[in-house]
Specification:
This protein has 180 residues and is an alpha+beta fold. Helix content is 14%, strand content 30%. Pfam families: PseudoU_synth_2.
Length: 180
């Protein structure tokens, strides 16, 4: 069994080919990983960064990707604004999005993490503060973390998936991967 941890940079598709209709081809996993027979276990939006797990084991892939298994996923989220206790409590209780209520999340304000530079950089506004959250969820709806933080009045500026289950990005630079 092969398991690969990949630190996906921003603007990279979480697939090996680009089937888009844009004029120029977009970056894909094949620009970074040349290991035959592995496939992503789950997705990460093009405008998000961080941990992707790739494997050649279909059963493991299903256990990681399926919401049925409630696998913990931890994100570092830069948000616009300063989170209040009420906003964090709302995330901890779960919020109701257009596609229904979310499960309760672990949510805490954190000091700015020591991350790699993002390309392009996050826009900085002198009149609007920003802050960082650590958010752990056990489901994985489309753009869920971004929608949850926006729902409580904290629009997402940068989203980095740091951990899936027991696997994390510790020691893995943006664009790098390793077998585990």
């Amino acid at each position: 069994m092969t398991v690969i941890l990949f630190n996906k940079p921003m603007n990279v598709l979480s697939q090996f080919t680009d089937r888009g209709t844009e004029g120029s081809p977009r970056a894909t996993l094949s620009d970074y990983i040349d290991v035959p027979g592995v496939y992503p276990a789950g997705r990460l939006d093009r405008d998000s960064e961080g941990l992707m797990i790739l494997t050649d084991d279909g059963r493991l892939q299903a256990r990681i990707a399926s919401p049925r298994f409630k696998r913990r996923k931890t994100y570092l989220v830069q948000v616009e604004g300063t989170p209040s206790d009420a906003q964090l409590d709302a995330l901890r209780r779960g919020v109701t999005l257009k596609d229904g209520p979310t499960r309760p999340a672990q949510a805490e304000a954190i000091a700015p993490p020591d991350l790699w530079p993002r390309d392009p950089p996050v826009r900085a506004r002198k009149t609007v503060p920003d802050a960082w959250l650590r958010l752990t969820i056990t489901e994985g709806r489309n753009r869920q973390v971004r929608r949850m933080t926006a729902h409580v009045g904290l629009p997402c500026l940068r989203l980095v998936r740091w951990q899936v289950g027991d696997w994390s990005l510790d020691g893995l630079a943006s664009g790098d991967w390793r077998k585990v």
